[in-house]
Amino acid sequence: MEGLTESWRSDRVVRLAQVGAVACSVLLPLVQVGLAFSYVGNGIGTGLWSLAATAAYLPLHLRHVWYAARAHRPPLGGWSLVVMTAIILGATPLAGNMWPRAYTALVVSFLLVLPAPWSYLGYVAVVAAAAPVAHALGLSWAAAPWLTFSVLGGSAALLLLVWLAATLTRLQAAREALAQRAVMQERRRIDDDLRHSLGSALESIAARGDRAASKVATSEPAAAAADLTGLADESRRTLAEARRRVRGYRQPSLRAELETAASLLTAAGVATRLDLPRGGIPDTIAPQSRNALRATVTRLLRAGPIGACTITATVLDGRMLLVVRADDAAETIEVRP
């Protein structure tokens, strides 16, 4: 239940980040439309042109933002960017001296749709042209630097939100892939365990059953009775072994927990190494020890940049200890099976 709750919260955070990026991409153009109606040198005519042009280009821009926030490039993004650029540049002489603020959406779409270095060249060119274009439309040189700063600040804020949402989306996908890999590894481990233990026992039971049946068929009741007695005893032992292993499978696997921890840290960019003793490690790990290991990994993921991490399993005075060493810090966890 705890894992389901955590997964639900993670999904909600990712969705909120994506929706938040789109919502903020709507707010800035609305502010620009308001300025087109009210700023000095503008009026009803420029405001209406600004409103019409914004209504035309904004859906295309939001499409770029939505796909980028989900860590995808929009299909046919180049064509939609061409149409968006034509609308914004075509409305420049008509939508008032505040219209270059709409270049914020244009440069953001450049970076989200175009590959490097063309996206960077387009960004620099449009930002550099914002102030001269606004001055040519009647804005004073005293206010032109403010407009350039507005384009820079607005685009940086929107890009930060979009890239944050995309990063969260990629992290969620990596987490799901790691979880699926952990499940597959555990399934293979259980399959190998059952095949090497219960499989051979069941084959032996089947062979003894065949021998007993053949002896009954050849009128050797005494020998058949002995085989049937041995068959019953072996069946009971196999059943007891099956029950013991099922109880063990209900407990978490220590090796699976260690491999999952190393995979999560590696996916986060931390070079992680597992150092396990040659004598092997316990098959299971108690819930308290498992929670302590997961809490340590969570703290490392939330901490600042970490260069390398080593998870070492050692035996001290008959106790199994896990030493998680990240750069200069170390934490010891006692493993209780």
Low-pLDDT sequence parts: 1-6
Number of helices in the DSSP assignment: 10
Strand adjacency order, main sheet: 1-2-3-4
Beta strand %: 5-15%
Mean pLDDT: 79
| Category from helices, strands and their pairing | alpha+beta
Structural overview:
By secondary structure, the protein is α+β, with helices and mostly antiparallel strands. The protein has three domains: 2-170; 197-249; 254-335, Heat Shock Protein 90 (2-Layer Sandwich), CATH 3.30.565.10. It is 71% helix and 9% strand. The chain contains ten helices and four strands, in the order αααααααααβαβββ. The chain has helices at residues 2-38, 44-69, 77-90, 103-113, 118-136, 144-196, 198-217, 221-249, 254-267, 287-302, and strands at residues 271-275, 308-316, 319-326, 329-335. It has a four-stranded mixed sheet, covered by helices on one side. Helix 2 (44-69) runs parallel beside helix 6 and helix 4 (103-113) packs parallel to helix 6 (144-196). The longest helix has 53 residues, at 144-196. It is elongated. The model is unreliable at 1-6 (pLDDT under 50).
How are the SSEs placed, and which strands pair?
Blueprint: H1 2-38, H2 44-69, H3 77-90, H4 103-113, H5 118-136, H6 144-196, H7 198-217, H8 221-249, H9 254-267, E1 271-275, H10 287-302, E2 308-316, E3 319-326, E4 329-335
Parallel strand pairs: 1-2
Antiparallel strand pairs: 2-3, 3-4
Protein name: Histidine kinase
Could you list some keywords that capture this structure?
single chain, 337 residues, alpha+beta, Heat Shock Protein 90, 3 domains, 4 strands, Histidine kinase
